[in-house]
Write a structure and sequence with these properties.
Blueprint (H helix, E strand, L loop, with lengths): L7 E5 L2 H4 L12 H6 L17 H15 L3 E5 L2 H4 L9 H16 L3 E7 L5 H4 L8 H17 L5 E6 L1 H10 L10 H25 L4 E7 L3 E3 L4 H24 L4 H6 L11 H5 L5 E5 L4 E5 L8 E4 L16 H13 L4 E6 L17 H19 L4 E7 L18 E4 L4 E4 L1 H12 L5
Parallel strand pairs: 1-2, 1-11, 2-3, 3-4, 4-5, 5-7, 6-8, 7-10, 10-11
Antiparallel strand pairs: 8-9, 12-13
Helix pairs in contact: 3-5, 7-9, 8-9, 13-14
């Protein structure tokens, strides 16, 4: 399968997951700093205090990206490096780091794609209500404008938010991610404020520079019923509307799904006149993060969605226990293409946790990851042949990193990181991906 000329081949990572330097050069505390340092919240007591030490090793990491052959790198900025308290005075040392990183990428022929918010909210803003408070949308707007003011002359591709739906569900309903809240009313308020902040940020960024290509990275997965029972079909549809369609409909139609408005009327956020028009701010492209699917059964005991995930018989799974389902990336791309008048699409995350380490010779054989990537890319390529305007692919992740509540226990990288020594070792998948990039084609 040969991909179109000019197709973007990249990889991705996020600030808290790789940077480290948690208290250096004026960086403010984030909700993940507070959460990870709370006993029992992250496996094995791991934190992102050092992580991959990318803050100090970014030149080495960019050299690895160049060696692999990446044409683009998707990074996120730590809001609290620019504004330690989320607002107020700009921290010049924080800007300096991202200036140096961007310049190093460009010097090595790698195009930066920047995400403004990848879950590491400044703790000071959480203490003001976090994204449950409408004011945070306007603080986010101001941060976005400032980031563009300093980097927009060189960085043209921007994402406002990463996976707002996962941030809502995992951090504000299930409570397993920072800030660890379990409240549906708060979760729905957070979802609306995130989207309002997105719309406000898009307008502010365009006011700063008219030449930017602005998008958003949405988590999107198929939600299939576990059986043909009507209650399972209904549960799957409810989950899809709540977890996925809520964001797509707001961004592209300026409205929320009727099912959720009806069934969750008592928990709805404060939606004011004009909000939905702001949220619907035109974008240049859409990012889709896809790893698997959910196979859903009705569960009356489940607190919020009355649904639970199940394991389909005969399926294969990653070491993170996620189903390997390449057909899902084809289906979600087709769904987005057929459902919405969308701009260009990028796969902004796709990858797998397989936890192989170096063998006796120092090589890291990860054949399972290679098979995973090959199958998913073939499925994505099939979507292109059927008219989907897929323009690029960002593999998650360039290197092993801090996997949120799992700590360092799940390895998504194509570069192995020895966290004790910070030694980087290219896995077999990195060499495979480099060969794929050079040929612009996926082996059959």
């Amino acid at each position: 399968m040969t991909f179109p000329n000019g197709f973007i081949w990249g990889a991705a990572a996020a600030s808290y997951q790789i940077e480290g330097a948690a208290s250096e050069d004026g960086r403010g505390e984030t909700i993940w700093d507070r959460f990870a340092h709370t006993p029992g919240k992250v496996k094995n007591g791991h934190t992102g205090d050092i992580a991959c030490d990318h803050y100090h090793r970014y030149k080495e990491d960019v050299a690895i990206m160049k060696q692999i052959g990446l044409s683009a790198y998707r990074l996120s900025m730590a809001w609290s490096r620019l504004f330690p308290s989320g607002r107020g005075s700009l921290n010049r040392k924080g800007v300096d780091f991202y200036n140096k990183l961007v310049d190093t990428l460009l010097e090595n022929g790698i195009t930066p794609y920047i995400t403004l918010f990848h879950w590491d909210l400044p703790q000071a803003l959480q203490e003001q209500g976090g994204f449950g408070s409408r004011d945070i949308a306007y603080y986010f707007r101001d941060y976005a404008a400032e980031a563009v003011r300093h980097l927009g002359d060189r960085v043209k591709h921007w994402m406002t938010l990463n996976e707002p739906g996962i941030y809502v569900s995992n951090a504000h309903m299930l409570g397993v991610h920072a800030p660890g809240i379990r409240d549906l009313k708060t979760a729905m308020s957070v979802s609306h404020t995130l989207l309002l902040g997105h719309g406000e940020a898009v307008a502010a960024m365009r006011k700063e520079r008219a030449d930017l290509k602005i998008g958003i990275a949405l988590s999107a997965s198929m939600r299939d019923p576990a059986t043909a029972k009507s209650e399972d079909i209904e549960a799957a549809a409810r989950c899809f509307d709540f977890e996925d369609r809520w964001y797509f409909d707001a961004l592209y139609r300026g409205q929320y799904p009727e099912r959720i408005l009806r069934e969750y009327a008592a928990f709805l956020p404060d939606i004011r006149e004009g909000d939905m028009q702001i949220i619907r701010a035109p974008m240049n492209w859409l990012g889709i993060n896809n790893y698997s699917r959910a196979v859903v059964a009705h569960d009356e005991t489940e607190r919020f969605l009355k649904a639970k995930g199940t394991k389909p018989a005969g399926a294969s799974f990653t070491d993170f226990n996620w189903e390997i389902y390449p057909e899902g990336i084809y289906r979600i791309l087709k769904w987005a293409s057929e459902e919405f008048d969308y701009p260009d699409i990028y796969i902004t995350e796709n990858g797998a946790a397989f936890n192989e380490g170096p063998d006796a010779s120092g090589r890291v054989p990860d054949e399972r990851r290679i098979r995973f990537l090959q199958a998913y890319l073939q499925a994505a390529g099939r979507a292109i042949t059927e008219g989907v305007k897929l323009k690029g692919y960002f593999l998650w992740s360039i290197m092993d990193n801090f996997e949120w509540a799992e700590g360092f226990g799940q390895r998504f990288g194509i570069v192995h990181v020895d966290y004790a020594t910070q030694k980087r070792t290219l896995k077999d998948s990195a060499y495979w991906y480099g060969k794929l990039i050079r040929s612009n084609s996926v082996p059959e």
